[in-house]
Specification:
eight-stranded mixed sheet, globular, 19 helices, seven-stranded mixed sheet, single chain, alpha+beta
Length: 569
């Protein structure tokens, strides 16, 4: 079929209101439900430019499809309900767009689970910790505090975490989630109450996590990681809803908080990679057809589907332990600088949200309550007031939603709404969403200029890799304020608090992931031109993708679809 022009593509997209487009069935082959995506006018250009660029290209071998096409392809997956949904921070990703939500009917034997709908960084999420400090308490010691945070939280990927863990500890952490942190003294009992799913996925099975994944995860527990992960010292800049803010322990502008953004590290990445290999076999066996091979999937109730669900849940538990460990280290860093206990500093967790996860939930579909497997990739759960799965503290406000900004820009706290529950399966945005690829950011931005701008804004920065300064600069992302405003105006979540950063701590790239991805990228380029897959040199010192049947056996097709900057997927 000949590729359509941009104008022809747009005939399938209709702006229903100032904040939302619908995508008609027929936009891509085999759509089972319509699609929709939330963008206001300022954000519309970035989404449409992806589609416009795609329409002009003669072929798109080796790259991601535009986000709108990916939303359509997800709408063609078996067992999907109501809509394939794109949120305002949506942009191209692996299989699913980042910012894509889709729910699958657990009662439908054809319904599927897809690792591409969760992402490689399973349970990448954000935690917000409050303090009773004010900006004037922190400014005189800001540099020392930033350095203390940098010293306490291991930020280099591949380096050993400070939290002492043995193999048996890792197995228990994968099973117990934050309950392991509580038992070991790295978390407070109140922390558990203020975590999505109370910090533990009960269906986790460490036996479904490969030895390679465990090997990667063991030394990384309690470490920050790379890409857009960070620990930020922030101050309250605006309070939009005083009642909600007070329920969170925020009572005035200038109050100091800490935001921690990290996930399941190399362990989660390996769980996803392992699952993709299994699911390709399941698709061939069960004759599952998709529009995009990156949408590898399996029937939810198949052995492969259940194995992934249990392994993904174990990786999610790892992520909660990881953020809990860094919260412990953050509390120690503050206690050291201010010579007060974390309890005296009132360093309580406001909430901990997940961005990349699939969970079984109950939702109303066509007037009937159904059990759905809701995939949220680059999106956040946002349950409304009185929902039974949110803490008692927030029953009157709705679930807090922590929306991280970019390095040097503001972040927000939102709350869930009833309308969001009906329209988006109780989901909202997760952050700003990339506007430039990492490669474009490195080529277009100057390290010194970005640092100077941050300094002029009064932001202290500690970063383990200079490349991340350009990759994570504000220019690399969409305007988070417009993203949040779209969600607020569409009433799928409501703005409560705005925070601005005064200090940022960031990590560096994972050498294992980078070396694997470089090999895969070279192999992909070679395969596009009909060449054989390159074999790793025996003398090479960098790690390679291997198994017992040779360096690429069983991994070839999956590896072809792994991209260099996996933390964003």
């Amino acid at each position: 079929m000949a590729k359509r022009t941009f104008e022809q593509e747009m005939q399938f997209c209709t702006r229903e209101n100032p904040n939302m487009y619908t995508i008609k069935e027929g936009f891509v082959p085999g759509m089972n439900v319509p699609g929709k995506f939330y963008v206001n006018e300022p954000l519309e250009r970035l989404v449409m430019d992806e589609l416009r660029s795609y329409s002009r290209q003669s072929n798109n071998v080796g790259g991601f499809l535009p986000a709108i096409k990916q939303i359509g392809n997800v709408a063609a997956l078996p067992g999907i309900c109501k809509y394939s949904i794109g949120l305002p921070d949506v942009h191209s990703g692996y299989g699913f767009a980042i910012g894509n939500v889709a729910a699958f009917d657990m009662g439908n034997p054809e319904a599927v689970v897809s690792p591409g709908g969760v992402g490689f960084d399973i349970n990448c999420g954000v935690r917000l910790v409050r303090t009773n400090l004010l900006i004037n308490d922190v400014l005189p010691v800001k540099e020392r505090l930033a350095q203390s945070l940098f010293d306490h939280i291991p930020v280099g990927v591949g380096s050993q975490g400070i939290i002492p863990t043995k193999q048996s500890d890792l197995e228990e952490a994968l099973q117990l989630g934050i309950d392991w942190s509580l038992r070991e003294g790295y978390a407070w009992p109140e922390d558990k109450e203020h975590c999505e799913e109370y910090g533990r996925m009960l269906n986790a099975d460490p036996n479904k996590v490969s030895s390679r994944a465990k090997k990667r995860g063991l030394p990384q527990l309690g470490t920050l990681g790379a890409g857009n992960h960070y620990a930020e010292i922030q101050v309250v800049d605006e309070i939009y809803d005083e009642f909600v803010a007070k329920k969170m322990g925020i009572d005035q502008k200038g109050q100091v908080c800490v935001m921690i953004h990290s996930g399941s590290r190399g362990l989660g990445h390996q769980v996803a990679t392992d699952a993709l290999v299994e699911m390709e076999r399941a698709m061939a066996r069960d004759n599952i057809q998709t529009n995009d091979r990156q949408l590898a999937c399996a029937r939810i109730n198949s052995e492969e589907g259940q194995n992934y669900m249990k392994g993904m849940s174990a990786a999610a538990n790892y992520a909660w332990v990881n953020r809990s460990s860094m919260t412990f280290l953050t509390r120690q860093a503050f206690a050291k600088v201010f010579n007060q206990s974390p309890e005296d500093l009132d360093m309580h967790v406001i909430y901990d949200v997940s961005h990349n996860i699939a969970k079984v939930e109950e939702h109303m579909v066509d007037g009937h309550c159904k059990q759905l497997l809701v995939h949220r990739k680059g999106s956040t759960r946002a349950f409304p007031p009185h929902h039974p799965l949110i803490p008692v503290d927030y029953q009157l406000t709705g679930q807090p939603v922590i929306v991280g900004g970019t390095m040097g820009t503001c972040s927000y706290v939102l709350t869930g709404t009833d309308q969001g529950m009906r329209e988006t399966f109780g989901s909202t945005c997760h952050g700003a969403g990339r506007a430039l690829s990492r490669n474009k950011s490195r080529n277009a931005l100057d390290y010194g200029d970005v640092l100077k701008r941050l300094e002029d804004m009064g932001i202290s920065i500690r970063v383990a890799s200079p490349k991340l300064i350009m990759e994570e600069a504000p220019e690399s992302y969409k305007d988070v304020t417009q993203v949040v405003k779209t969600c607020h105006d569409a009433n799928i979540s409501k703005m409560a608090v705005k925070l601005k950063p005064i200090a940022v701590v960031k990590g560096k790239l994972d050498p294992i992931a980078v070396s694997i991805a470089k090999e895969v990228s070279a192999a992909l380029r070679a395969s596009q031109f009909g060449h054989a897959w390159p074999q790793p040199a025996a003398s090479s010192s960098t790690p390679h993708v291997k198994n017992s049947h040779g360096p690429w056996s069983g991994m070839e097709e999956t590896a072809k679809r792994v991209t260099l900057w996996a933390p964003d997927l």
